Amino acid sequence: MKIKIINPNTSSALNEELRREALKVVRPSTEIIAASPEMGPSSIESFYDEYLSIPGLFKEIRKGDAEEGADAYVIACFGDPGLLGARELTSAPVLGIAEAAMTMASMIAATFSIVTTLPRTRLMSEHLVQHYGMREKCRSVRTTSLHVLDVLADPDASVRQIAEECRKAVEEDRAEAIVLGCAAMAAHKARIERLAGVPVVDGVLAAVKYCEALVDLGAKTSKSLTFAEPEKKTYTGMLRSFGR
Question: What CATH number did the domain enclosing 161 receive?
């Protein structure tokens, strides 16, 4: 099977890292494609960034169906940008890493906390906790001073800061597991888990394993109503190519 991981920002340096980490946990027969859109923000750290990343993400979904033969998709940004719209575009399973991580954490621990990037992203994570029905499970959303690209530029300093917030979540918030709130943290999951002393869930790795299971079971995205193909209509201006 082919699983396409789409990093919705345009910083392609993260793509190979995500592909490498995914290959460590999937079966040898599973092929991983990792890609970024040609258009969009260099990193996603605000609602504005998130919304502007979605058109490029949709193009990568279309490419995955039409040219690459993808059997499932992972949206590798913790905001799960464009997730519901992406499910309208394809019958293949599409998973967001926030939904995958919180679901997995809820299966292995009574409570969890999210440790993420900048303080301004806290509300974005809290919206997702509410949307995915995890308010009773999520003890806290803890932020750091890290930009997404800081994790790539200085992994050691980033891991120390993330691990410190994990420790506080366990000691002060009574979290029994940690959800990593940024795709760039995936490569450091094992180190953070050792320092945290509780299970740590990375959404990219969780999502690719869920994708394998869904494809094995022949599960497809329902097209009966909500996730049916978008209505055919004309789009204008810079969105002209998105018309159907």
Answer: 3.40.50.12500
Angle, in degrees to the nearest 10, between helices 97-108 and 122-131: 70
How many domains does the structure of the chain reveal?
2
Same domain, 139 and 211: no
Distance of CA 72 to CAs 38, 69, 228, 235, Å? Answer: 20, 9, 17, 27
pLDDT in tens, 176-230: 999 999 999 999 999 999 999 999 999 999 999 999 999 999 999 999 999 999 9
Residue 105 domain boundaries: 98-202
The reported pTM is 0.97
Amino acid found at 31 = E
127: how many CB neighbours lie within 10 A of its CB? 13
Other CB atoms within a 10 A radius of the CB of residue 22 amount to 24
pLDDT tens digits, 111-156: 999 999 999 999 999 999 999 999 999 999 999 999 999 999 999 9
Rounded to whole angstroms, what are the CA distances from 13 to 19, 100, 105, 162, 163? 11, 23, 28, 21, 23
Write the CA distances from 95 to 140, 209, 243, integer angstroms.
23, 11, 24
